Amino acid sequence: MDIRDKNILIVGLGVLGGSYAMALTEAGYKNVYAVNRSRASIDKALAAGVIKAGSTDVRDFAETADIAVIAVYPTGAEECARELGRLMKKGSLVTDVLGIKRYYSQKIAAQLPEYIDYVPAHPMAGREKRGLDFASAQVFKGANFIITPLERTSKEGAAQVERLARDMGFGNVRTLTPARHDAVIAYTSQLPHALAVALINSDEEDGQTGEFIGDSFRDLTRIAEINADLWQELFIGNRENLLQAIDCFTDQLARIREAVDKKDAQSLRGMFEKSSARRAKLIKKK
Amino acid sequence: MDIRDKNILIVGLGVLGGSYAMALTEAGYKNVYAVNRSRASIDKALAAGVIKAGSTDVRDFAETADIAVIAVYPTGAEECARELGRLMKKGSLVTDVLGIKRYYSQKIAAQLPEYIDYVPAHPMAGREKRGLDFASAQVFKGANFIITPLERTSKEGAAQVERLARDMGFGNVRTLTPARHDAVIAYTSQLPHALAVALINSDEEDGQTGEFIGDSFRDLTRIAEINADLWQELFIGNRENLLQAIDCFTDQLARIREAVDKKDAQSLRGMFEKSSARRAKLIKKK
After folding, report:
1. Interface contact flag, A226 B250, Cβ < 8 Å
2. Distance between CA B267 and CA B257 in Å, rounded?
């Protein structure tokens, strides 16, 4: 059976689940279903023509689903997996979209019988805003998609999820261990969010700063407008890695501070040349 | 005399001086001259039609200049002012483009006789790249322009520089004391650059990170590709303010670290809600 004819069930029509629905429908998937706590998002998705049918009750579609996507908040993932595990058929597949993998993948896996394949995944194309209204298939185009297989994950299952990712427009599909994924993501995603939040919260707030900001400040604080519920879960769920990333960063900032304090032009120049070379290399790679 | 008929001398055809030449010529200024250490940039500017004439010797145009723009590196500004002070006529005006004001404005002022008006200014539209090849009149459109008058600065002189700024396309022209300017800029410009440098330099550099970066990391490190010579001057020249800004930031980051360490979801949520509200307000103001 062509994968585009399979029954795909998206659980959670938030910004990511909604974007999956849009991107899959756009790619020619014909049987995309959605389950969501509130009926309003279901109706919107139906009106937009990005799902075939939807319900507030997972039992309506879980039994016939070939592939289910867990697109709820991290703390809701375990309960969601429990329901899918009870209902889904033998040979079906579950994947997810969670931004941290080690902790939650274990929780999800524990709820799924061995006869359901499980392929943990992280589509790296977030949005600061929450909800279906901010969903968009465009954000996936060319973005990174990471698969973090467990021992139980089958090669065929991983290949199917890779196919979904490519059909949705992701540019790079990579495989990492859950532990390595979480260490990388602490540095490339959670640490930048922590810095943006700390930067904007360290303002004197005398009401004048906004008149004098330039591009650099605007770029660095864009992600300070953050989904508080989601991100506290991501921060605490990746605690050890994030603490380490913050400590590495703090050490580097302390070196800059020391060089400024001592008026050490040579050290500053060295750090700036290093950062310039690294940034140029990073972007080139992309 | 219409200001667009006056003799404008730009000293230093780097990215900012070059952008001034382009923006003024585009605005209909007919007598824009330039002095630059190397002949190559003069020839390029002539070929581009953005200056009327140019020279490597400041003596060729300083005596007839009505307005001179000091657009050299901060550490070259004092020497540049000394030459202009010796050569420029009574009633002429000097302005500059330096990104920190208190220290360098005093140095420049000390070199200019009282019969030359001096209007310190900071066009807030930098480029990460250096040199005339990256100059562009476009970067000024809608940007902030700050005038930091000294006691000796005449109202008429400040008004003339404001006119130049508006003609070049700047959106907001504001007046600040040099001390206030430097405190604001430490927070809105130098601190973000320090964070970007520290962030990219804290990478483990195992060669994999680049494959997994998302928009947030890309945004936050854009300014880590930095003009090392210029920025070490700006950092050290604004030492006290920058140290204070780094300390405020470090304190905020430490609070996030502590909340993560203690798995304190409530505190994290509070910090994220605060940062979101501040960011939304900041952008609205702009």
Report:
1. no
2. 11
Domain ranges, residue B198: 180-285
- Mean pLDDT over A193-221 rounds to 81
Cβ A230 vs Cβ A186: under 8 Å: no
Residues A216-226: what's their mean pLDDT? 86
- Span B93-147, pLDDT tens digits: 999 999 999 999 999 999 999 999 999 999 987 655 566 776 777 889 888 899 9
Q: Are residues B22 and B133 in the same domain?
A: yes
Give B277's contacts (C-beta < 8 A, 6+ positions apart).
none
pTM of the model: 0.84
Distance from CA of A178 to the nearest CA of B (A): 14
Asked if B137 and B277 sit in the same domain, the reply is no
Distance of alpha carbon B255 from alpha carbon B276, whole angstroms:
17
Query: Strand, helix or coil at A123?
Result: strand
- Write down the ipTM of this complex: 0.84
CA distance A135 to A231: 18
Is A1 near chain B, with CB under 8 Å?
no
A32-35 and A8-11 beta bridge pairing: parallel
Residues B144 and B91 in one domain: yes
- The residues near B129 (Cβ < 8 Å, ≥ 6 apart) are B15, B227
How many A×B Cβ pairs under 8 Å?
289
